[in-house]
């Protein structure tokens, strides 16, 4: 997938940018969206809206159709049916206007390894019509913003994976787009680099950008998004704030780690239908609790009267992983590939 949907064409340069004059209403509107690749129906009547100035996260496993949606919203692909508007513009009949007001950072950094970081950003500035000094100022500003000022004169081939992802994101922001699409931007990054990207996204949101984020990392959506939609089987199966979605699956959980398989079987039998999740391979069982120490102690006494079956225990709140499992019947990640979106 191309990394920057905002690159100019000759026809794009003739279309005025909306800049701060965004129309009233949602930044993104999707209704009745369908898409098939041959006999495979990837999207089945998808509908959602994204508020202006918010971080919206679309969650789903590989194969759910997330990248297909991003490609349609960013004018890189056409839907079979449905209505899609971005910054108030139809993505088919007003595609040039949409492109002038968005940026897209894909799953992999698409930057020239032989250029320096500064050269990359200056080139993007010139493509957007910035003059020499303007392009240099914007390049320096973005390098500083993304913690790359000290590496600006180094060739990109010497950058770490996290630095490349930050530079790729910086390059997509040269034009100050109204809507930023981030398609699984932290895939393959280590924990530290992922945290750095999270901080960059938070700053963009604080500055008032509308951010559309797709991710397989549910913790990422929980950290960043004000709105979350879960896509499964080509449909939106739930939408709301992270807190609203987590409330859907109930209260606190007591997680038990059992000593062995015999202990696992015995505790599972004692708790019966109160068991929320059970993983025999990992020797873990979860049961709902009100979060008080009194009930936790009562559950421990009931499940392990001899005090030998439970090796460890912990109280925890529901996560978006729990939401995904409750709504779809399977974990958030699965091995099948999103072949239609490749």
Compact summary:
With 342 residues, the protein is of the alpha/beta class.
Summarize the topology.
Elements: H1 10-13, E1 28-37, E2 40-50, E3 55-59, H2 66-73, E4 81-86, E5 89-90, H3 95-99, E6 102-105, H4 117-127, H5 132-145, H6 161-172, E7 179-183, H7 191-206, E8 210-215, H8 218-224, E9 227-232, E10 235-240, H9 242-247, E11 252-258, H10 261-271, E12 275-279, E13 284-289, H11 293-303, E14 310-316, H12 320-328
Parallel strand pairs: 3-8, 3-9, 6-7, 7-8
Antiparallel strand pairs: 1-2, 1-4, 4-5, 9-10, 11-13, 11-14, 12-13
Helix pairs in contact: 4-5, 4-6, 6-7
CATH superfamily of the largest domain: P-loop containing nucleotide triphosphate hydrolases
The neighbouring-strand order within the major sheet is 6-7-8-3-9-10
**Total number of helical segments?**
12
User: Considering DSSP H and I runs of 4 or more, what fraction of the residues is helical?
Assistant: 25-40%
Name the beta content range: 25-35%
Shape: globular
Largest sheet report? 6 strands, mixed
Count of beta strands: 14
Structural class: alpha/beta
Task: Name the CATH architecture of the largest domain.
Answer: 3-Layer(aba) Sandwich
């Amino acid at each position: 997938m191309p990394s920057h949907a905002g690159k100019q064409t000759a026809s794009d340069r003739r279309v005025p940018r909306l800049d701060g004059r965004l129309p009233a209403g949602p930044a993104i509107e999707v209704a009745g969206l369908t898409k098939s690749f041959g006999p495979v129906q990837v999207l089945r009547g998808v509908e959602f809206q994204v508020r202006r100035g918010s971080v919206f996260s679309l969650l789903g496993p590989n194969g759910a159709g997330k990248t297909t949606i991003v490609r349609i919203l960013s004018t890189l692909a056409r839907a079979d049916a449905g209505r899609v508007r971005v910054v108030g513009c139809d993505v088919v009949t007003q595609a040039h206007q949409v492109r002038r007001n968005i940026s897209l950072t894909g799953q992999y950094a698409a930057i020239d390894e032989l250029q320096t970081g500064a050269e990359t950003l200056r080139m993007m500035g010139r493509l957007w019509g910035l003059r020499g000094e303007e392009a240099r100022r914007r390049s320096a500003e973005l390098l500083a913003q993304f913690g790359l000022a000290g590496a600006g004169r180094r060739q990109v081939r010497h950058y770490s994976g996290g630095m490349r992802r930050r530079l790729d994101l910086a390059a997509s922001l040269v034009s100050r787009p109204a809507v930023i699409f981030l398609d699984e931007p932290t895939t393959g990054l280590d924990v530290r680099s992922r945290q750095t990207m999270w901080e960059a996204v938070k700053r963009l949101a604080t500055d008032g950008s509308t951010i559309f984020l797709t991710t397989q990392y549910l913790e990422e959506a929980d950290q960043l998004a004000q709105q979350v939609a879960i896509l499964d089987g080509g449909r939106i199966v739930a939408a709301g704030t992270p807190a609203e979605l987590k409330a859907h699956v109930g209260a606190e959980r007591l997680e038990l780690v059992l000593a062995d398989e015999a202990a696992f079987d015995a505790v599972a039998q004692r708790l019966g239908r109160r068991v929320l999740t059970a993983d025999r391979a990992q020797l873990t069982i979860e049961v709902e609790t009100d979060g008080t120490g009194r009930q936790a102690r009562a559950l421990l006494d009931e499940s392990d009267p001899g005090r030998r079956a439970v090796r460890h225990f912990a109280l925890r709140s529901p996560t978006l992983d729990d939401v995904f499992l409750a709504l779809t019947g399977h974990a958030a990640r699965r091995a099948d590939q999103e072949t239609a979106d490749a």
